[in-house]
Amino acid sequence: MASLKGSFPAISTICSNFSSSSSSSSPLSKVSFARQPDADRRTSFDRRIRRRMACRAMVQQAVQGAPAAYAKEMERLSAKESLLLAFKDAGGFEALVTGKLTDLQRIDVNERIIGLERLNPTPRPTTSPFLEGGWNFEWLGSGNPGFFTATFLFERFPSSLANLSKMDVAIKDGYSKITANFKFLNSIESKFVLSAKLSVEGPLRMKEEYVEGHLESPTIVEERVPEQLKGPFNQAVATMQQVPVPVRDAVTSGLRFPLNGTFQRMFMISYLDEEILIIRDTAGIPEVLTRSGAPSPPITDPIAEYES
To answer: Is the pTM of this model over 0.85?
Structure first.
């Protein structure tokens, strides 16, 4: 009993206060008797027994509570690791966007997503500082604009000609930028950036309004250009040098097209911690993202609070 009190100082203090208050309030503590009657001795003994039982109950609750919280946290960490391993076993992001996943792999990943969602440690994720920062897409739903772009690309070009290497999103100050990284002929790299405004609709629900699309000018890695294409490539470079500067600058800056909120979607954040973000669209299809860098520090002005 003494060792348990030492491990839980608050409980030790409560027990001692309980004991001192009981003894100081007792009229017997102010009167000296040569000999206590049997009834009084029994009453004093009963009080001591009740005090010990009360302290023991508080200690047992504390001892049982700590392992329970530890076990739940270990279960959450295990579920995270299990989900990430399921992504790897299924072939990762490339297998997802190329449609090479089997039904068994899909159901396995979805089962592990559900297992992690029920252990969500963040009750109000839409206003959590953990939401801001950079995230990599690991699992996409059919309603995601990036998934639609990837599907359109791979349906028309073989993977040897074009592929989507990765997708990520940066969230900051109520806005998001979704970036899809494409590669053509393993030598031409380009990015498509979709900017959106985020609105908090509740503790779990958000709205995403697309503001602008930007197709960046491709970057060519000359060392990777196939030998049979180096001739046309050099001719294209020479032609670009003869183009007027304003036109060349316009091509270099890429193609921008305003969306002005024409397209939007609603989604719900079903899981958020410092490493993993899980959202579900209106059809309930999950998207899983992993942190690409260090989580953002706590901020004083998070995304605008929702109005109930």
So the answer is: no
